[in-house]
Design brief:
Layout: H1 3-9, H2 14-22, E1 30-33, E2 45-53, E3 56-61, E4 68-72, E5 82-86, E6 96-98, E7 123-126, H3 132-135, H4 145-148, E8 155-157, E9 178-183, E10 186-187, E11 193-194, H5 195-207, E12 218-222, E13 225-229, E14 235-241, H6 250-261, E15 263-264, E16 271-275, E17 278-283, E18 286-295, E19 298-301, H7 304-309, H8 319-328, E20 329-333, E21 339-341, E22 348-350, E23 374-375, H9 378-384, E24 388-392, E25 398-401, E26 408-415, H10 423-430, E27 436-437, H11 439-447, H12 454-465, E28 472-473, H13 474-478, H14 483-495, E29 499-501
Parallel strand pairs: 8-29
Antiparallel strand pairs: 1-2, 1-7, 2-3, 3-4, 4-5, 5-6, 9-10, 9-11, 9-26, 12-13, 12-23, 13-14, 14-24, 15-20, 16-17, 17-18, 18-19, 18-20, 21-22, 25-26, 27-28
Helix pairs in contact: 11-12
Bound molecules: zinc ion (3 copies).
One zinc ion (ZN) is lined by residues 166, 168-169, 171, 193-194, 196-197.
Keywords: Metal-binding, Zinc, Zinc-finger
Organism: Cladocopium goreaui
Protein name: Peroxin-7
Length: 506
């Protein structure tokens, strides 16, 4: 770290702040001070704008691989919306959070840990050089007239067999929301996937990170999220469906709470009673519930025969037998059956249904969920583990491996932007963040948005634009009469249904 950032590092105390205020911005676009020290790197220091994410600039600490300061919009819910600081853009590990949606990272009010309190000493100060960005409304790319209205032609199309297809499902890409993996704003690898497959890769590879529940974990509704806590209340991650790794909604969590409430531990004085085809539990002579057996990691009803065989029929739980019995049995409390009313069709569903039986709608949450955690005993763990799991918190970007080239990193799925609406973004992505693009890379990129093969596009690009200077700069790419306009005219014609079959010409 240079001398300048070293000085900022120590500016958390009052005199330090004054000292810091007098320092000019020697480098970078943003200064961070007051962040608690960490074992795996410091967040304090100078940052430079590295690109854009969700409509706001991304800052990367100068002279290191990270951390990043980036914005996440409300696409995953209000509780994730705001500014973040973490070692990887969108990664599971985050060091700081600010809930505001300002165009620039707010100066005060940061939280570290991210779900903690306002830290008071953390300060982010944006250089005067970049604060102008703040007033610039975001901001669609300004698209020249010849791109917005590229003129009419006939769309060239080719035999579907020849088109560039998703490397996994073989669906032609041009019509399947082609997507790539990005890691800290850079392409992970040159491969393209249809958005379905890309999302599935993320889900599959994320699911590997799912962890089973353990005794003494707690589940809670924290910051508006179905969460899993450790025994001391420290946040471990999200409560998710095992099958999809999707976080539970508040309505679903409400049902889980209601179900768990029906599982009750044995108490001294409870009595086992065999009754026709059931093994029941009485309390003070009154029916309390039925007996469940904790078998391995699951729960099942006790067969009345088993009660007799074990000599437990009419047995009363004694202080001396309580603990061993609790390790084996739990009571499923009968009584009032709970319902939830579907908000869409008003059908009354039982609390064991996680979707409306009539219309399939998800459950709604009829009341505020308790903020404190609910401890999972052995029975709770067994009850939950067939369907739910814990996913370590935050996972926009996940550790994944491209199934083709096997390159691995923490990455995000990003759809290829629309060429006629965001040509610069498209160019940066397709050229893999270089300032120029080669003929073959351009043909590759165009082949994922047009129904033409890479070979055919190579021929077209050479025939029409071979006279330009290659590799091509963005300005030449976008210029009037350039490749961007030609490709946009193709897109335009495709959308208006003017097709021409030209495969034979090749
Ligand atoms: Zn696919
Ligand atoms: Zn319904
Ligand atoms: Zn790859």
């Amino acid at each position: 770290m240079g001398n300048a950032t070293g000085a900022f590092e120590d500016s958390a105390c009052c005199s330090g702040v004054v000292h810091w205020l007098r320092l000019p911005f020697t480098q970078g676009d943003l200064l961070v001070t007051g962040f608690p020290r960490r074992s795996n790197g410091s967040a304090n220091g100078a940052y430079a704008i590295r690109g854009e994410h969700h409509g706001r600039p991304v800052f990367q600490r100068i002279g290191s691989k990270g951390p990043f300061i980036y914005f996440w919009d409300d696409r995953d819910g209000e509780s994730w919306c705001g500014w973040w600081l973490g070692p990887i853009l969108g990664g599971a590990e985050v060091w700081g959070y600010h809930p505001k949606e300002d165009m620039m990272p707010p100066e005060y009010g940061w939280r570290s840990p991210w779900h903690g309190e306002d830290s008071k000493v953390i300060r982010m100060s944006v250089s005067g050089r970049v604060s102008l960005l703040e007033v610039r409304p975001k901001k669609k790319e300004v698209v020249p007239k010849w791109i917005a209205e590229p003129g009419f032609g006939e769309a060239l199309t080719e035999d579907a067999q020849l088109l560039q297809s998703c490397c996994i499902c073989l669906e032609p890409l041009w019509n399947a929301e082609p997507s790539v993996f990005l890691t800290n704003l850079q392409r992970l690898c040159p491969h393209y996937f249809c958005s379905q497959c890309a999302k599935r890769i993320v889900v599959e590879q994320t699911s590997l990170g799912l962890q089973p529940f353990k005794e003494d974990m707690q589940i809670a509704f924290l910051d508006g999220l179905a969460s899993v806590l450790d025994a001391k209340g420290g946040r471990l991650g999200d409560l998710v469906w095992t099958e999809t790794a999707r976080r539970l909604t508040d309505g679903e969590l409400y049902l889980v709470f209601s179900q768990l409430e029906l599982l009750v531990e044995l108490e001294v004085g409870m009595e086992f009673r065999r009754c026709q085809d059931q093994a029941l539990v009485l309390q003070k002579g009154v029916l309390f519930g039925c007996l469940l057996l904790l078998q391995g990691r699951s729960l099942r009803r006790v067969h009345p025969e088993e009660l007799s065989i074990e000599g437990l029929d009419h047995a009363v739980v004694q202080p001396g037998t309580l603990i061993p019995l609790r390790r084996r049995f739990v009571v499923y409390k009968g009584g009032e059956i709970q319902f939830w009313r579907c908000q869409r069709c008003s059908f009354e569903n039982s609390s064991s249904d996680f979707g409306c039986k009539l219309c399939g709608s998800p459950p709604s949450c009829p009341q505020d969920l308790p903020q404190e955690g609910r401890r999972l005993g052995l029975a709770g763990v067994a009850a939950l583990r067939s369907r739910f799991a814990m996913r370590p918190q935050l996972h926009w970007a996940v550790q994944l491996k491209c199934p083709l080239c096997r390159i691995a990193a923490v990455a995000l799925v990003v759809p290829v932007p629309l060429l006629d609406q965001a040509p610069k973004e498209w160019f940066d992505l397709v050229s893999q963040q270089k300032s120029t693009i080669s003929q073959s890379d351009l043909a590759q990129g165009l082949s994922v948005i047009l129904p033409l093969s890479v070979d055919r596009l190579g021929v077209e690009v050479q025939r029409r634009f071979g006279h330009l200077v290659w590799p091509l700069t963005f300005d030449d790419f976008l210029g009037e009469g350039g490749p961007a306009q030609w490709a946009c005219r193709q897109l335009h014609a495709l959308r208006s249904g003017r097709h021409a079959q030209v495969a034979e010409e090749v």
